[in-house]
Amino acid sequence: MKRTARNPRPLRARDPLFNSSVQKALAMLESFGGERRALSLAELALGAGMTTSSAQRCTHTLVRLGFLGRDPRARRWALTPRALSLAHAYLSGHALLEQATTHLIDLNQASGESVSLSEPDGVDMVFIARFPSLKRFYIHMPVGRRLPMYCTASGRAYLAALPAAAALRVVRRSELRSLTPLTLTDPKQILKRIQAAREAGYAWSDQECYRGDVTIAAAVLGEDGQPLAAVNISAPTSRWTLAELRSKLSPLLLQTARAASRGHAPLP
Known about the structure:
- By secondary structure, this protein is α+β, with helices and mostly antiparallel strands.
- It folds into two domains: 20-83, Orthogonal Bundle (Arc Repressor Mutant, subunit A); 93-261, GAF domain (Beta-Lactamase), CATH 3.30.450.40.
- The chain is 41% helix and 19% strand.
- The protein has helices at residues 20-30, 41-48, 52-65, 84-91, 95-111, 153-160, 164-173, 187-200, 242-261, and strands spanning 38-39, 68-71, 76-79, 114-121, 124-131, 146-148, 203-206, 213-221, 227-236.
- The strands form two sheets. It has a six-stranded antiparallel beta sheet with strand order 6-5-4-9-8-7, with helices on both faces. A three-stranded antiparallel beta sheet has the order 1-3-2.
- It starts with 19 loop residues before the first helix and ends in a 7-residue tail after the last helix.
- The mean pLDDT is 90.
């Protein structure tokens, strides 16, 4: 699945404290990713929603600050390793991540497949930890990757742990599009799948984001019983069918989700 450029968030009307320059600089940084490794000034201006002259001043500032580097021959800009400092600042000392890591590693070793932890951001889930399988698996899922809630096991697990009305609002706000020929885009079918996850205690996805990938996921709950994140097991169809994955690994998945929630939510 190709990464699509994120549209810059609209300016907040009637907010005297909102700084549009900061918003546009962050939108420029968010323009990068996936196949968009190096961008021209015109591409950066378009991605950030600013004029070329404003983009020139912004890129100059970001180069001086060390977040962008410029290839003078190609006349393109790219992120530098300093951009990772923002992600590191978020992940370092992350209480849930620190608490869950041991359990995620145990699940990774017990299942033999890739295990991830993701958090909600708008209508997406953002991956904050990834423990890949030692077996061959062709899908690269770096920390920071965001995927839509409506078609992922992790997203559906998170939505299933919300009140039904809140889950419905997220689905209605989502851009329901096919990422593979198997992606569900009918809102009624998506809501049925979320309800099924609510009843089962975990969610699943059969090649809806990536061909050849089957996934199961369960929500991690906070002390108030509300979902904070989701843990998932992802496996290739060359080794598993979805039915086999659900039958054999869902007990381990649920055990891990409960363990990760311990200290954040009362256990039954």
